[in-house]
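Cont'd.
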Amino acid sequence: MNRRTALLAVPALLVSGCFAGGGDSTDDAADRLRVALPFPPVAALSPWTDDALLLTRMGAAETLVTFEASGAAEPQLAESWEFVDDRTAVLELRDDVVFHDGTPMDAEAVAGSLNAAAAADPGLRVLRDVGLVATAVDTDTVQVQAAQADPLLVQRLGAPSLVVLSSDAYTDPAAPDPVGHGTGPYAITDVQGVQSATLDAAADYWGGPPAADGVDVRFVDDADSRTSSLRAGELDVVQGVPIAQLATLTDEQRVVTTSLPRVTALQLNTADGVFADPALRAAAVAAVDAGPVVDGVVEGQADVAPGLLTDDTLGAAVRTAPTLPAAGDPAGASIRLATYDDRPELPEAAAVLAEQLRAAGFTVEVVVQTYATLEPDLLAGAFDAVLGSRLTLLDTGDPVGYFATDFTCDGGYNLARLCDPAVDAAVAAAAALTDPRERRQAAADLEAQVLSTGAVVPVLHEQSRTGVARGVQGVGADPFERQVVTVATTTGR
Amino acid sequence: MTTALLGRLPRAAGVLGALAGTALLVGALPWLSGADPARSVLRARDVEGTPDAAALEAVRRQLDLPADPVTGTLGFLGRLLTGDLGTSWVSRTPVADTVLPALGVSLTVAGAASLLALLLAGLLTVPALLRAADGRLRGGGPGAAVGGALSALPEFVLAVLLVAVLAVGWGLLPTTGFTGPEHLVLPALALGVPAAGVLARLLAGAVAATAGESWVRTWRAAGVRRSAVATALGRRAVAVVVPQILLLLVGTLGAAAVVEAVFDIPGLGGTALRAALSQDVPVVQAAVVLLVATGLLVGGGGVLVHRLVLGPARTGSGFTPEAAAGRRRPQRAAGVVAGLLLLAVLAGLLRDPTAQDVDLRLAPPSWAHPLGADPLGRDVLARFGHGALLSVGLAVVLSALTLVVGLAAGLLGRGDRSGPADVLNALPAVVVGIVVAAVTGPGLLAACVAVTLVGWIPLAVHARTLAVEARASGFHVAAVAGGAGRWHVVRRHLLPVVGPPVLRHALVRVPHASLALAGLSFLGLGAGAESPEWGRALAETTGYLERAPWVVGAPAAGLVLLGVVAALADPAPER
């Protein structure tokens, strides 16, 4: 080999180098669903992180209870339950559930799984300050107990981080391994790093035989890329189709839309700067018109927010109109409005709102960054206004927790920096209520109370959009975005 | 023998120092940015959660966060010596399992893109070579103009366009994923074509300069075959771009995050970006140390290849590179294109770039809005015009800065070996951006500093490459032998030979500067959120490419035309 050929060989070696191991190497005969989920696993699919959502969306793991649209608990792995006292509940388990590794899901396994989650370090957000202890009463009965009175005890068991895995999953007590240890319609057989996962149908699934032979899941960060793959026919189900791409879909694809308990709202900094003045907050509230954002920026793919909580969440509860102080004259007061570009619509929405505020007499500077670099400044109150997106029903399907974290003096995500003793007292009172209807009415009253401070301006309620290839049926339409692949999902091929 | 070994010691120490230094820089990220790493890690694991004190304390205890950057980095380097890359703070899995496969993937993509860039640039240069061999070359040839246009194509726009047309539209290739060679074509094109533009411009300049050397006339007069003359010319030109190709290869490894995202490629750029944003220091440290080590290796290799290609001529006084002579006349085409650009900009300047009307969202071109409307219903022509001042102005200033730094570093540096340039070139842009933002705070100035920090490197390497040739020329050897001072040699003998091609190179990179600024906007660096600056506008609207091509087309066309003007404005002198 002379010198020149040797030089040529170097790039050739590079090109023949590395490709990622793929999840799509299965034979064509099998009727497998090809699915793309919107974010890669952060911790090797450990259910004690956001990866729990990936597990439920893939149909690989399930919780004891699940939620209806209003956030009330419904049976899943648990058939029924009742409160023994205000801190203890007893759950009857389904007796036909088998883990993917073949072991039966009995009370021992469930109690073990819950206790392992309760011992997680750092603690799971859904079990924070709960002190949960689970004990097996008999084969099909589990008792769960909190350290003090807890009206949400059963609701908590619907959090994705509390999916039930078999005892073998907890060999490493710091990082549960869901591969082959779940209960869902599909069993994970292989995970290819943060790129993809392979699942096969669980033949003895308690809900009947799954409709497809298996699922090939890819984790694709970029929303436009997911949509391109769907349009090219490389995928059957794609979660999170961006609004900008809807118009590019053809007859070969359709979109399953579900209203979410997620509000996009403008938080005004009540502690420092221009919006410390309630009259100027009232001026900003009056200036904001959600219409152009909903009709224009999100192209009608959202609802104008009547309040912070959605109508589905409040059910029969009655909303009272907030009462704001008289609006003051901004007189050109300078404000900085921050938002993040992780959700593509937010910067455009911020530009529209900024223009509305300018028309009302404010001088507005818009700041856009990626969320990770913006958060320290957000929490430190560095901006006068923040346009952000927030789930109002988080783990437990209960709206009171949202007010506690976002609008109380000690709230961990109080971007408005609201510290109003009356609000704090009302939140504490609402949190103690046990009757679901009373809780919802209390939440509606809380909403009016918070809106009356002018600390936050609700703009819109978001929708989830799952793109599917034409023949695909039975994709989960879940307002909590936990179910995508279900037992009934078929490829239609 | 011993002296040879001793002579190598400082260089080995320099390499180790560079590795340790970058590891320390990355290890200091949490301290530089002032953001609590425990909170970043918690947020990465739990997007909707509330970072309360108890959870933060638990994470801190678990991560065993080092007390200061020096201790942390020493620990990292100690583990590195035993072959252990550590454990990720976020995922708590071994770093090696994430970073090593990503490096392999990135090497594959960057290698393919570099090869493609070299081939494409070579093809674009063939006509100029043949004409030069015939003694008919005027200016830089068509390669210069095409190169200028290609070099200004934004990679991410090209990537989205390729997916839309070749993958979705025609179904020729897969859209996303990275499981086989068919997945390599589109990313290589997206990364390689703009790079080929820069290389073609450099090749055209090198061919034009070499074609004027007296040996070409002698060979032709002696009746040497056309193909032999062309080959000899080509070899000299290739010698100039080989180091650039290697820079491109290494620079792409850690910096292709956006293109990786479009094609869903699990490369090192995306890995480093995610880890840097969530302050997963062990992962960033491992990624950066690997990148810098690769950069130094390849940089050293580049020097060797350059020597091989130049052959024995380098050591003697075999070269006769000549300073630019004769009159200069910008090509007429440059004037026409510049005039067109100027007209459009003036037309835009007369209109209002801020007036919103969401009813006109993405409206197609009409009499009222000749270039259509953007997603907020703002007039695209107005934003094009108002963005031009900022885009062109900033890009020119940045290019001038990088030119001065690059020339100084390339000419004043002793010898031809790799150095800090190879280290900086290998660092992912996001790491540089975060460090600069942490030191200076967000804003336009910080972005300019970050872009300059990296932008001077190709120019310095180019200057260094040309200086090696110039130093091997008869007149330089004579001047040095005659006792001329170093400054005198640089000013009278090196600058006239090295300056013009590097200036042309800097001009070709003018549109790049604009895009590089936009690439940092997600960190809060660069032009403000509502600014009509072209790079920013492109970064914000690329997703609308298929629905409303005019929104993306206007700033993209602006950059491409700017590239053409820059490529044609200073042609090689006519003879």
